[in-house]
Amino acid sequence: MPxxxxxxxxxxxxxxxxxxxxxxxxxxxxxxxxxCGGKARCTTCRVEFVxxxxxxxxxxxxQVLAAKGAIxxxxxxxxxxxxxxxxxxxxxxxxxxxxxxxxxxxxxxxxAPVEWTTKG
Length: 120
Prior knowledge:
Blueprint: E1 3-6, E2 10-13, H1 20-28, E3 46-51, E4 56-58, H2 59-68, E5 74-75, E6 85-89, E7 116-118
Parallel strand pairs: 1-6
Antiparallel strand pairs: 1-2, 3-5, 3-6, 4-7
C-alpha cells in the first residue's frame, strides 16, 4: 500500500489505485474540496506536491488546468495513489463558505473514457 503524507496532518497508508481526492477525505480525514464530484471541471480538488508527483496526468486534468491558468498544482480527483507521495492540501472546506466538501466521488476516474498523457 502506498504512503500518503499530508503536510501538517501526518502519514497514512492508502489503498493502491484509490483516487487521491478520495484518500484525502476518507483515509486522511482532510476537508479537501471536490465540488464537481471529481469530474475534472472545477479545480477545487487542487493540491500541491511536495514529493512523489506522478509523471502522467489525464487529458481532462491537463486541459482544465491550462484553461484556468493553474500552475504548480494538480487535481486530486484525477490522480491515482500508486506510489508514495507527499502533498499540501490547499483547497479546503474551512474558510471556503461552502456547505460541504462536494458531491461523492466515484471509485474510478471520471470523465470516461480516461485518457492519459505526460505532465509536461
